[in-house]
């Protein structure tokens, strides 16, 4: 079955540490997205990519970095510059040019906690 | 700044009642609109999308779109306890080459048995 896989499900980060969240999809979707969700804040866009080797900043990109070397993969690195990283991170994908009509498919999420 | 607002909530209805969830958006050029359901601790799942004015029905769910007034709503008929979740409205505020969805903060619905 096609879908999006996020790993790990839970992640603990120490102060000053960089961590990488994995997102892999086998839906043959061109576009991929990273959102952050905090209680009462809804989903806020961190980064998105419409095509391999290209990505754009979203509304809250500071302290995060991404890469898109393969169509199937869009890993997110939470750097030590992100001062409040504790949140639920969601990866999503869609067909380019069709997300207007079909929306996104989401992964199951990664819950990151600073310890 | 272009926005999607869901200001009402939390919402509590008795089992069997109609739940009405509302959403407004700031950009008249928006063309596509989505409702996602999110259970506690889980990721959002798409339940409805609409892009033409009027009503769109799917089982117990009806999405209503009024582009002139810039609002989209979701009606849930015969509400069940299993409908208890947070409902997120999403709008494509930037149609075109860098298309992406903007989400509202969500409305939490509780259906009382």
Q: Describe it for me?
A:
The complex is a heterodimer of chains A (115) and B (113). Chain A is built from 1 helix and 11 strands, in the order E-E-E-E-E-E-E-E-E-H-E-E. The longest helix of chain A is centred in the last third of the chain and has 4 residues, at 99-102. In chain A, 39% of the residues are buried. Chain A has 115 residues and is mainly β. Helices cover 0% and strands 52% of the residues of chain B. Chain B is built from no helices and 11 strands. Classes of the chains: A mainly beta (115), B mainly beta (113). Chain A binds chain B through residues 33, 35, 40-45, 48, 50, 56, 58, 90, 97, 99-109, and chain B through 31-32, 34, 36, 42-46, 49, 51, 88, 90, 92, 95, 97-106.
In short:
The complex is a heterodimer of chains A (115) and B (113). With 115 residues, chain A is mainly β.
Return the average pLDDT of chain B rounded to an integer: 91
Work out the radius of gyration of chain B. Answer: 14 Å
What structural class should be given to the helix and strand makeup of chain A? Answer: mainly beta
Unreliable segments of chain A (pLDDT under 50, ≥5 consecutive)? none
Descriptive tags:
heterodimer, A: 115 residues, mainly beta, 3% helix, globular, B: 113 residues, six-stranded mixed β-sheet, five-stranded antiparallel β-sheet
SSE arrangement:
The complex is a heterodimer of chains A (115) and B (113).
Chain A: E1 4-7, E2 10-13, E3 19-25, E4 31-38, E5 42-51, E6 54-57, E7 64-66, E8 76-78, E9 87-94, H1 99-102, E10 105-106, E11 110-114
Chain B: E1 4-5, E2 11-14, E3 19-25, E4 33-38, E5 45-50, E6 54-58, E7 61-66, E8 71-76, E9 85-92, E10 101-103, E11 107-112
Parallel strand pairs in B: 2-11
Antiparallel strand pairs in B: 1-3, 3-8, 4-5, 4-9, 6-7, 7-8, 9-10, 9-11
């Amino acid at each position: 079955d096609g879908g999006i896989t996020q790993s790990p499900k839970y992640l603990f980060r120490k102060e000053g540490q960089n961590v990488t969240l994995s997102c892999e999809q086998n839906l043959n979707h061109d576009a991929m997205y990273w959102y952050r969700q905090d209680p009462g804040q809804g989903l806020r866009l961190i980064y998105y990519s419409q095509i391999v080797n290209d990505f754009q900043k979203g509304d809250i990109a500071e302290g995060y970095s991404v890469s898109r070397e393969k169509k199937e993969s869009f890993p997110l690195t939470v750097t030590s510059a992100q001062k409040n990283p504790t949140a639920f991170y969601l990866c999503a994908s869609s067909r380019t040019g069709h997300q207007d009509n079909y929306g996104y498919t989401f992964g199951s999420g990664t819950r990151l906690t600073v310890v | 700044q272009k926005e999607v607002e869901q200001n009402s909530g939390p919402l509590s209805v008795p089992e069997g009642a109609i739940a009405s969830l509302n959403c407004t958006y700031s950009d008249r050029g928006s063309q596509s609109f989505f409702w996602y359901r999110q259970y506690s601790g889980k990721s959002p799942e798409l339940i409805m999308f609409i892009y033409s004015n009027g009503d769109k029905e799917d089982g117990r769910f009806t999405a209503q779109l009024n582009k002139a007034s810039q609002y989209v709503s979701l009606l849930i008929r015969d509400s069940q306890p299993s409908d208890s979740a947070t409902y997120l409205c999403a709008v494509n505020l930037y149609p075109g080459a860098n298309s992406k969805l903007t989400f509202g903060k969500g409305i939490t619905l509780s259906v009382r048995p």
